[in-house]
Amino acid sequence: CTSPIGGRVAYPPRMHTSLLLLACAACAVAAADPQSEELLELAARVHGDGNLGGANLPTVVLVGHQNAGKSSLLEALLGIKLTHVGNEGLTRRPLQITAQRDDSAAEPALFLTRDGGGSGGGEEQVRPEQLRSLIERENARLEAAGEYEAEPLRVRLSWRRAPTLVLIDTPGLIGPADGLELGEAAAAVEGLVLQHLTPPKRLILCLEDTSDWAISRTMAVVSRADTDLRRTLLVGTKLDAKMAQFSLPEDLRGLVDPPALAAERPHLLGGPIFTSVPPLRSDSRHAGRKAAAAGGGAGGYSDLIEEHEASLRRLLGSKLQSSEFDARIGVSALWRLMAPHLTARWLELVQETSRELEARIGKIRAELNAPPPPPPARLRRSTRRGRPRGSGAAPT
Q1: Are 100 and 46 in contact, with CB atoms under 8 Å apart?
Q2: What are 255-293's pLDDT values in tens digits?
Q3: Cβ contacts of residue 200 below 8 Å, gap of 6+?
Q4: Cα–Cα separations (whole angstroms), residue 195 to 119, 150, 203
Q5: Given this model, what pLDDT does residue 302 score?
Q6: Comparing C-alpha atoms, which of 165, 179, 190, 157 is closest to residue 338?
Q7: Using CA atoms, how far apart are residues 203 and 67, in angstroms rounded to an integer?
Q8: How far apart are the C-alpha atoms of 343 and 178, rounded to whole Å?
Q9: What phi and psi, each to the nearest 5 degrees, are found at residue 285?
């Protein structure tokens, strides 16, 4: 691209280099195709260079009632095991994963930000089992105190297969008992979750463990932060268990393609998409991949997910005698549904970056082109005193 650097100013080498890098970055941002992988890679590199904070990255918040499968879906989206499935009812503090694609990282690397570490520091690399232990200890501490904490545990994931975005796993919502009003703990969790749903640029994954879309408890909570559900994608969990409940094809079809949902929620961003956690079987055929998945091994868990999703599609197709709903099954389907909305956020983010870079260029150019300031008065007096006698006299 043509550099916007102009004029005849002799730039100091370091300033000249900084200005040139900023100019080239601004040109690259402006030329990026908003639908291309190039844009995502460019934005990821800008973030990696520290020009953008993690809070500005596309952010997806997972919300659901206890044992709806949030933690399992978080792991499936990332492709690695992080937490103990089945302990969601004990979650008392959100978990925030800032995932960053790193082509040099063949294996996933996890970095925990210690409480009080601040931005840009306080990171410690941890293994998945260490992170699991930390989450359990933190939940036990808060449970003993009878408290919930809105500030998330922050973890950075660096991996060549990682998507560059932020995922937030919120504590499981607690439903009212026997139709009564929410208890103190349930109200506390709901308030905490709503804090994370409120920022208007966040995408929401609303998880419902239901066989009847007329009963959508999580959606009712989400609508308090996203009234028309314009930022919300609906996810039905535990599909394998649901399919076992329906003996008639028309009932199963009503679950995967609910006709009343579109009429009642016309502005819903998307869904329902259906997911299911792959079982980590212990037979010898799957023992190697089970060990790799449990330890966060590269690709092990992702392979199990893909295999499980394929089996779900075959089972659903055989029950309905149709493959028309294949595009609604699995984590891969959820990624396809999220992709245009994440890309739109990336484009917005890169445009913000472009404006920031141009502002920096203008500031540096103004500093470099400004006339030098006059010397201090004290220095001028010293110069006059040191002038040779008669140097200022007119020639004779």
Answers
A1: no
A2: 999 988 888 999 999 989 998 877 654 443 444 444 444
A3: 231
A4: 21, 8, 14
A5: 82
A6: 165
A7: 21
A8: 43
A9: -60, -35
